Amino acid sequence: EVGLSQIMIAIDPLRFNTPEETDSIVDEILADIKSSEPIREGGEVYYPGELELKNIKENKEQGIPVIEEVWESILKM
Q: Nearest to residue 36, comparing CAs of 25, 50, 26, 47?
């Protein structure tokens, strides 16, 4: 890509707070996000990565969902 710059800065929160303080700050931020008004009535607001974590947990508990025809074609290979 042209004319695009990206930078990532990693900051160790333990340089500024205890683990408990950092956890508390993160919990407060997540609580604020989750208290936001959803776009649709009855909907839910998710923080970045929350749906992926939910899917990973469900897949570990229930297995990875697949389309039966696709799985059968894989088994025939």
A: 47
Q: How many helices (H) and strands (E) does the chain have?
A: 3, 0
Q: What is the pLDDT of residues 20-42, one digit of tens each?
A: 999 999 999 999 999 999 999 99
DSSP 38: P
Tokens of 54: 């939910």
Terminal-residue alpha carbon distance, the chain:
39
Q: Give the number of other CB atoms < 10 A from CB of residue 62.
A: 8
Q: Are 33 and 40 in contact (CB under 8 A)?
A: no
Predicted local distance difference test score (pLDDT) of residue 4: 84
Give Dmax (Cα) for the chain: 56
Q: Determine the Cα–Cα distance for residues 31 and 33; give it in Å rounded to an integer.
A: 5
Q: How many Å apart are CA 48 and CA 30, to the nearest integer?
A: 10
pTM of the model: 0.62
